[in-house]
């Protein structure tokens, strides 16, 4: 009987720290899982299905936020608990997010920290099943001189990520510095020993070329128990980036 009761727990009956609005206020929008943000947009669940469960089911049904953005209101409303009004409101919010992302991509952004780099790659990295490695060529004021350049695809290791491929886009664009990034399809952004080894090799190559490596950002996904969807090797102190 207790198990049946637990299966139908409402959002208000969740522990306060797990309630969508409380979690949003306590940790900030950028640190809550996707289903919590969706739950705040949807506001209410349905009988026997709280709003967090409904949001989670919505993401699982479409497979990713990217697929969700592409869905039409008619498709969204096929899920129990999402009628035409909710589907319309959700589609409008997701479309605004898509347009903002496109607008930012079309600008000449400043990479002020690892979160800026992670934000630029987050959507395209979300669905990737292989590791990909990008380089951000930057000027002396940390303005991106072009969109992030994909230089490698496959399992990240020292033999796959060559310094010449990483620094060629920077040399061609007369960049003063670079930031490098890659994704972890597993969703866990924690660096592996190979990630740290590659980082050290690139920093040394950059010193020889006179191009500073500012950071190596690893992009995963925000999941329960993780404080962020990305990891900055520089900020973690696991590798020295100083000259």
Description:
It is built from eleven helices and five strands; from the N terminus they run ααααααααββαβαββα. By secondary structure, the chain is α+β, with helices and mostly antiparallel strands. It has two domains: 2-105, DNA polymerase, domain 1; 108-236, Cytidine Deaminase, domain 2 (3-Layer(aba) Sandwich), CATH 3.40.140.10. β3 (177-183), α10 and β4 form a beta-alpha-beta unit. α2 crosses α3. The longest helix is centred in the middle third of the chain and has 23 residues, at 84-106. It is elongated, with a radius of gyration of 21 Å.
Task: Compose a concise summary of this entry.
By secondary structure, this protein is α+β, with helices and mostly antiparallel strands.
């Amino acid at each position: 009987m207790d198990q049946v009761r637990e299966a139908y727990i409402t959002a208000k009956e969740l522990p306060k720290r797990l309630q969508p609005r409380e979690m949003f206020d306590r940790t900030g929008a950028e640190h809550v899982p996707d289903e919590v943000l969706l739950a705040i947009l949807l506001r209410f669940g349905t009988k026997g299905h709280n709003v967090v469960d409904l949001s989670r089911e919505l993401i699982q049904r479409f497979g990713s936020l990217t697929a969700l953005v592409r869905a039409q209101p008619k498709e969204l409303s096929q899920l129990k608990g999402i009628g035409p009004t909710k589907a319309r409101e959700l589609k409008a919010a997701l479309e605004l997010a898509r347009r903002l992302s496109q607008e930012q991509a079309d600008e000449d952004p400043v990479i002020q920290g690892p979160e800026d780099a992670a934000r630029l790659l987050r959507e395209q990295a979300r669905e990737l099943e292989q590791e990909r490695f990008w380089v951000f060529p930057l000027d002396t004021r940390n303005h991106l001189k072009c969109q992030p350049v994909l230089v490698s695809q496959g399992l990240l290791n020292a033999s796959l990520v060559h310094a010449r491929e990483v620094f060629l886009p920077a040399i061609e664009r007369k960049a003063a510095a670079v930031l490098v990034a890659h994704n972890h399809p597993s969703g866990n952004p924690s660096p592996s020993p190979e990630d740290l080894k590659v980082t050290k090799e690139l920093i040394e190559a950059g010193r020889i070329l006179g191009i500073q490596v500012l950071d190596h950002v690893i992009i995963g996904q925000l999941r329960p128990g993780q404080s962020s969807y990305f990891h900055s090797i520089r900020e973690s102190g696991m590798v020295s980036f100083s000259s």
